[in-house]
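Worked example 4.2. Below are the chains of a multi-component assembly; read each line carefully before continuing.
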Amino acid sequence: MPYPTDRKYTKEHEWIQVNGNTATVGITDYAQQSLGDIVFVEAPKVGAELSAGNTFGTVESVKAVSDLFAPATGTVTEVNADLATSPEKVNQDAHGSWMMKMTLKNPKELDGLLSAADYEKFVAEEAGH
Amino acid sequence: MSSVEATPTIRKTALNAVHRQMGAKMVEFNGWDMPVEYPAAIGCGIINEHMAVRTGVGIFDVSHMGDIRLDGPQALAAVQHISMNDASKLAVRQAQYSALLYPQGTFVDDVIVHRLGEDEYLLVINAGTREKDFNWVRDNTRRFDCTVENLSDDYTQIAIQGPKAVNLLQKLTDADLSKVKFYWVTRGTLCGLSNILMGRTGYTAEDGFEIYVPADEATSARVWNEILVAGKEFGVVPCGLGARNTLRLEGRLPLYGHEISDTINVWEAGLDRFCKMEKPDFIGRTALEQAKSAGVQRSLVGLEMTERGIARDGYKVQDESGREIGYVTSGSPSPFLKKNIALAYVPGEHSAIGTKVRVEIRGQGVGAMVVPTPFYKRPKKSA
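Applying the procedure described above to all two chains together yields the following C-alpha cells:
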C-alpha cells in the first residue's frame, strides 16, 4: 500500500507528521496489520518528556503487548482520548488515527527517519523474511 | 509475526499448506507451526473468529493434539489406574474429561477419555505432551492385558464449534447427529469417507464436534474445504489458536502449563468433580487424600479487571496493600464479555468472590476483583 508522503517513518513502525515545531504521531498500517485486533492503547501523560528511541507507551492486541517508541525528542502536548474507548480505530485507519502530539526539541532529528518510499521498501523486506 | 517460514525441526499438521494459503498468521506452539488467526481481509482475526464460535460456527485444525488407544480385556482397568475420573461409568460411545496424575497428585496432562468399544478406549491429549503422555501411559499400564498404541500421527482432527456446528456437520454426514448427546461420540460416513469418528466434544465452552479423518494431506484439505463450503450459510470462519485460547479462557477450561502442571494438584486447580476419590485406587490418589487433610493452600480463581489494563500470563497478583500473593495463569481480553479477565492462583484467604486484588502491570498495581467462573456459560437450548 502506498504510504502517505506527508510524514516520516521509523523502523519501529511509527509515523510522525510535522507542523512547524510540533508533530503528530501514530503507528503505520503495517503495524496494525501485524498486531491484529488492537484492544488497548496506553498513551503517555500530557507534559511527559520523551527522548527519541525511548518507549512512550504501549499498544496491545488480544495476544500481545507492543512498545511504542518515540520518533523524536520533545514534550507531549495532547493525547487522543478517543483511543481509550475505541482502540479498534487504529485497525480501521492507522494513518488517520493519531496517538499523541508533541513539541519537537530538535526538528533536525527527523532527517534520520525514513521517507514513505524508504519505509515501503523496509516493510517489503521485513515481510519477505 | 506474519507468514514466516517455519524452522526445519518444527512440526506441521496435514493442513499446514492450507492455513498458509489462506494467509493465516503462523506461530510456533509447543513445537508445532500453527495458525494463530486468519486474515481480516476474509472476515477473520481473533475477535471475529471468537464471536463466530459464540454466535454461529467456527472450525479449528487441532491435529497437533495426540491420540492414545488402549484395547484389550483389561483396557478399562488400565485406564482406571492412570486416570482420575471413573471410566467404568462410561457406556460405549461415551466420553469424559479427566486427567493423568503423578503419584504426587499433580498433573501429567488433562485428557478426554472416550470409550469407543467394549474394551477400547481413546485418550485425546495435548500437543505439547504427546511423547510424555504416551510414555507415561505405556510405562504405567504394562501389567494390564491390553495394547497401548500411539495414533497421534494417524488423524487430522478438526473441531467444528458453535451453536450452528451440528447443523453444519449434519450436511456432511449420514450419522443422525440429533441422537448424539454432548460428550458422546458416533461413527458415520463423512464427506464420502466411511466409519469416521465424530465426538460431541470441544474446548470452546460451546456445542460442537471434533472429527477424526485420515491424516493424508489431500483428504485433510478436501474435508476442510468441504466444511467451509457447507458452512457458508452459517457464516463459518476458520479459527486459530488465538481464538481457541480466548474461548477456552471464558469457559474456565484449563491449559496445561498454565492452570494445570506437574507442580499443581487437583484441589488447587478446582477440578474436584472430575476426580473420583471413591475409586479404590489410581495414581495420585494417596497424595490427594493427604493434601486434602493437610488443607489446600491456594486456589484457582477468576479475576475481572476493575481498572484500565489487561492482566496477562505470569503477571503478579497483589493484595490491596500491594503485597504479592499470587500470579496470573492465563489472562486476556474477553471478546464476548468485553472485559479483561484472568485466571490466577491466590491463597485461600483471598479466593472469596468479591475479594479485591491488584494485578501488577508494567510495575503498577491495577485493580481487579475475584469473580465466579466460568466467566461464560453457553445458553441452554430451548426445546
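Take a moment to check your reading of the output against the notes. Residues 217-230 of chain B form the longest helix (14 residues). The radius of gyration of chain B is 21 Å.
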